[in-house]
Amino acid sequence: MQEYEPEELSKSASSWERSIYDPFIGTFSSESASTVVSNYVSSHSTGCVSNARLLRKWLQHCDNHHSGCKPAPRERKFWPKRIIFIDGSISGKLTLVEKQFLYEDYLVLSHCWGNPTSVDKSRFCTTLENHDHHALCIIQGDGGDWESQANTMQDIFANTYCTIAATSADSWKDGFLKPQSDPLDGQTQNYSTPSPCKCDFDKDVDAGPLMKRAWVLQERVLSRRTIHFTGSHVYCECGDGVICEQLTKLEPPFGKQYFILDPRFPNRLYTSGYERTVQFIQFLFVKYSASGITEETDRAIAINSLIIRIEQVLETSSHYGIFQLFLSSLLLWKRRQDSNPPIEYKKQVPSWSWMAYSGGIDFILEPTDQFLVPHRDDLCFADDGRALNIKVRNFGEGYRVEENGENYDIMVGTEKVGSLWLDMGDQIQLQDCKCILVGTLNDEKEDDEEEDARRYYYILVIRGKYEGPNQHKDEGKHGNKDRGKKYERIGVGKVQVRLVSIDCTLGTLW
After folding, report:
1. Which residues, in sequence order, are CB contacts of 248 under 8 Å at separation 6+?
2. How far apart are CA 41 and CA 57, in angstroms?
3. Residues 210-241: b if buried by 16+ CB within 10 A, e if exposed
4. Are residues 166 and 216 in the same domain?
5. What's the whole-model pTM score?
6. Is 93 a member of any domain?
7. In which domain, by residue range, is 145 found?
8. Domain Heterokaryon incompatibility spans what residues (predicted)?
9. Which of 363, 388, 408 is the last residue in one of the domains?
10. For the segment 49-73, what is each residue's pLDDT rounded down to a tens digit?
């Protein structure tokens, strides 16, 4: 099994199937396809009247033909604490309302804040002083309700009638209803014989400013339907696929986009099989970790809604972004940038979690059912989930470590016998470190001692954790006093079996 970069998964999954969406055109009664395109499609402005008519038609078609995409109002048990009521008159007055309308529909706007100044925030953010008339739905600042409302984000987006995404806007000052930058490459559409559009959804949406923000990932995944306003196109996204403003339907391959478009996320993971499920979860964490986030400590919060839902559907538990069901596979993360120290949380995240650091991550092994993992007693969560119960092993002798770009090679003579990726990039003395066995690939060859010694273990590299004066008190408090010494992770690796000792001791990884 080859090591892989998750970017390859993203690249291979971008081949959307394209076609003129005839079933949607059929909703325009007796109008021909060419008439529909000419009357309802505009290539000049994302905010034009014809686009508005097209979007209404798409929502109506989705309501009537796509089961699961529209939340049933009479089944809804959630309503946002505050909504903005838009007066339908010419004045278009906006009013902030704190009232429950359980049988009505609401829309959500997903957008980038940008970098507002303190003056901008005082004018446009809802605060205790101005929330009676300002048009934003979470009270910011001291005495506000950000912490409590942040926990309802999953319900807000999962129950919205539709999410409107200002996908091309870098900040709230940019706007998104404006002339398109490159309409149809400057060419005139032949309306008499409509053909699939050459739009680039991956570029326009996935690579757009909005989708590079960490908080937005869960907003998009949990929304059953999203209308994306980009610089060149408007896209309608739902569980059935994507339709662009030129009436081209884009259907995703069975991969990352298929699960992202799940209108009842993450139900599709339930029947996707082990490899596909782990593959998507790794992709999700890779994408999220590389996304921008203003407050570093939000890293452990802004994806929590998705983690909770995956827990429920797959009937597993998780701690700090690691699912019990896929424990070994998800522990094999490596950092893309190894210069920044751990994030300083109020309650520190364990070293074995990718949430402990800022910046992007990758995984060093592609999911496979040939991956053999340790017995549960050898590697598992401690009772409180803050530590891992582990078996600690020593490295052998007669090797040296050589730096090789982003990783380190382990050499015996002229032979490479392993690779290490360090979390902080410091030069280390491997003799001072120990390791944990996380797994190995199944070798179907007949038993051979020499060949077996050259098989590879996937490991975590660890060292003794600083033991303060309250060590024994803390160990008793968390039920780990009988597990031996405390350790912390300093890296991940792949080494030949002969480099790892058979003997082991008990410990805990924090």
Report:
1. 18, 19, 20, 21, 196, 197, 199
2. 12
3. bbbbbbbbbbbbbbbbbbbbbbbbbbbbbbbb
4. yes
5. 0.84
6. yes
7. 18-251
8. 135-219
9. 363
10. 567 888 888 999 999 988 888 766 6
